[in-house]
Amino acid sequence: MTMNATSTPQTEQQKHLEPLTTVRTSAPKSRRRRIKIILGVTALTLAVAAGGGYLWLGATSDAKNLGVSDCNAVEPEITATPAGSATADDHRAVCGVLSAMKDAWARHDATAYGDLFTEDATYTTYVGTAYQGRRDIAEGHRALFGGFLKGTKLSDSWLSIRFYGPDTAVATSRGDTYEGGEPKAADLSKTQTYTLVRQADGAWRIAAFQNTKRQRVMERISFLFSPGTKPAAEK
Q1: Residue 138: enclosing H or E segment and its boundaries?
Q2: Is 172 helix (H, G, I), strand (E, B) or coil?
Q3: pLDDT tens digits for 43-93?
C-alpha cells in the first residue's frame, strides 16, 4: 500500500513565534539605520560649523597696517652711524631701485631685473626657494617669466623704510603678483623685506630679499588665542 506524504500542520505556538522572530531580526537593523543617520547629521553639522568658522576667521583677519603705494611718500627712519647718515637723495635713490624692479618685472626682462641685485645677493621666495647671486636670480626669473609668472605684474604697498648709516637700507612692504587690475593693499597676500646697500660705484642695489606668504586664518587664530603676539601696528 502506498502512503501519500502530507505536511505537518503548524502548531499555535509556531504561528505566534514567527512574527516575534521577524520583529527581533528587524529591530537591530532599524537601530543601525538610526545610528547611521545620527552620525551623518552630526558629521554634516560639524563640517558646516568648521567651514563657517574658517570663513569667519578669514573675513575678520584684515590687516590694519596697509602701508602706502608710493615709496617716496614713506617717512623714512634714519639711524646715524660713525660713517654718517642717509639723506633725502638716498631715500629717492632706494625708491628708484624698487620702482625699476617693478618695471623690469612688468617687461619680463630677467636681465634688467637681476642687475638690480648685488653680485652675491640672496633671494628667498615664499615657497622657500633660495636663489644665491645675481645670475641665479636672473636665470630663475627668466624661467618664471616664461612659465608660472607669465603675464604678471608686481604690486607693493610700503610699510617702512629704515636707513642704518649712509649705505644700508631696509624696506618692508605688502606685495603680490597680479594680472589685470591692480589689487587693493588689503588683498596683497605677502609680506616682503628688501635689504639694499650702496656699492662702490655709488649705486644702490638689493643685497637680500625675503618673501613670506601671509597665512590670514592662522594669523587670526594666533591673535585670538595669544593676543600678546599681535604687532603694535595691528592693535
Answers
A1: helix 134-145
A2: strand
A3: 766 666 656 655 554 555 567 888 999 999 999 999 999 999 999 999 999
